[in-house]
Amino acid sequence: MMYSPVNYRYRVFHRIPVVILLLSNALFAQYGRFSIAEEPTAPRSAAMGSAGTALAGSGFGCYNPASPAFAPLPFLSFEYGSQPGDLLKSLVETAWMFPSWFAGASLRVHTTDFIITNEQSDGPTGPISSNQVLQAAVTGGFIYGRLAAGNSLNFFQERIGDQTYHALTWCPGVLFQVIPNSLTVGASLLHYLRLDTTGSRWYKTPAAWYQTARGLPRYARAGIAWSDTLRRWTLPFTAVCDLVYSDVYERFMVPLGAEVWVLPSLAVRAGVHINHPTEIAHFGVGLRWSSLEFDFDYGIAQLVSGAETKWLFGLTYSLHMKKQETTPQPLSEPKLLHPAKKDSTALPVLQKATPAAAEPVIPVPQTPPAADSANNPSSKPDTTGSVRPDSLLNVPARAVPAEDSVSSKK
Fold first, then answer.
1. Which secondary-structure segment (H or E) carries 318?
2. For residue 277, is it within any domain?
3. CA distances for 375 relative to 261, 381, 409, angstroms
4. CA distances from 163 to 85, 158, 199, 281 (A)
5. How many independent structural domains does the chain possess?
6. Residues 287-301: pLDDT tens digits?
7. Phi and psi angles of residue 124, each rounded to the nearest 5 degrees, phi first
8. 59-112 confidence digits (pLDDT tens)
9. By C-alpha distance, which of 35, 40, 60 is closest to 172?
């Protein structure tokens, strides 16, 4: 075969786009796949620098699968926010707590549209492509006194243009109340055990579920939360601090923040994310009214183009569960309090406490002596006493018949 410069140039320039496409896919798979896992949820935790590993409540898909265990009440929360690059994000989450176990579920979605410019035209041709990422998660675990252990399953799907990728991860987490209602510590491993399809499509190559996707961020988290009251101003506060390792950024990061309830229904929050490549600071507020709680997070990020802002709004509804209350019985009725342990010795006590009313004694009128009482000793009045013996037995007195009195005289 003769050497032809035209054929050589054709083969070289024909393969250049293929090489560039492969390189771009490799870089994108390392840093761009499933970026939804990097973005924090729960406006309360996000406003405190994304330090939510030891906080009880929402956000189990981002911080700790055991987070719902020590929440005060079952809840249903909704979130909506925006990020730089016209990316919209939303989330729905619920969790239920019981005396010895808990369970929860959440669905998070990120969407953005791309407007591609045609090289042969000056203006954009319209949105012809989009990027949609979702995360569906379920969690559950057991509560052993002050210790809670949870596990979550996370399903990811990312669609870029006409390509779709999937991933399935398992995440464990623990929470421990060192001092109940004051000091809590927690730890979790996020997305270290996983199955994914970043190498090829799952329906074409089922073995792709066992490949390792460097683009899915993995985190190891440990945190502490302290709740107390500022004695000088009598203001409740919560301070949190986490230690996070990210394999995507290959560094340790320290998110920390605080929350202060300046009013019974108003809280202010602030936090920073130390050693994070883009996060600078976060600020937020919280409003509580009856069973509703409104949370807002405002963050500042440093991107290549400069400082950008993002925000996240959340609404949480606490589900109050009614408990059956037992009304104590009065102490004067012991037989109603303990019907199975009735003691016969208590009956005389109750009878003595409430004696039966005695029948009235009817006095017998005395018959005046006759004129010949001095000569007739049998007609003298009884001087032994004015009370008859039958009255001592509470027996009503009866009149003596005339026949008895005549026989006595005889």
1. strand 306-318
2. yes
3. 109, 13, 14
4. 21, 8, 12, 35
5. 1
6. 999 899 999 999 999
7. -70, 150
8. 999 999 999 999 999 999 999 999 887 789 999 999 999 999 999 999 999 987
9. 60
Amino acid 246 reads: S
Distance CA 242, CA 186 (A): 9
Q: Which CATH number characterizes residue 268's domain?
A: 2.40.160.40
251 and 40 in contact (C-beta within 8 Å)? no
The H-or-E segment that residue 12 falls in is: helix 5-31
Q: Where are the alpha helices (DSSP H) in 275-345?
A: 334-337
Rounded distance, CA 163 to CA 98, Å? 42
Residue pLDDT, tens place only, 129-168? 678 899 999 999 999 999 999 999 999 988 877 778 888 8
Q: Which residue has the tokens 């409540």?
A: 57
In a domain, 343, yes or no: no
Query: Residue 244 is which amino acid?
Result: V
Does 302 reside within a domain? yes
**pTM beyond 0.70:** no
What values do phi and psi take at 45, rounded to 5? -70, -40
Domain that holds residue 39: 12-115+127-318
Distance, in Å, from the CA atom of 176 to the CA atom of 380, rounded to the nearest integer, reads: 100
Nearest to 293 by CA among 41, 78, 17, 38: 78
Q: How far is CA 156 from CA 137, 251, 370, in A?
A: 9, 24, 123
- Whether 360 maps to a domain, the answer reads no
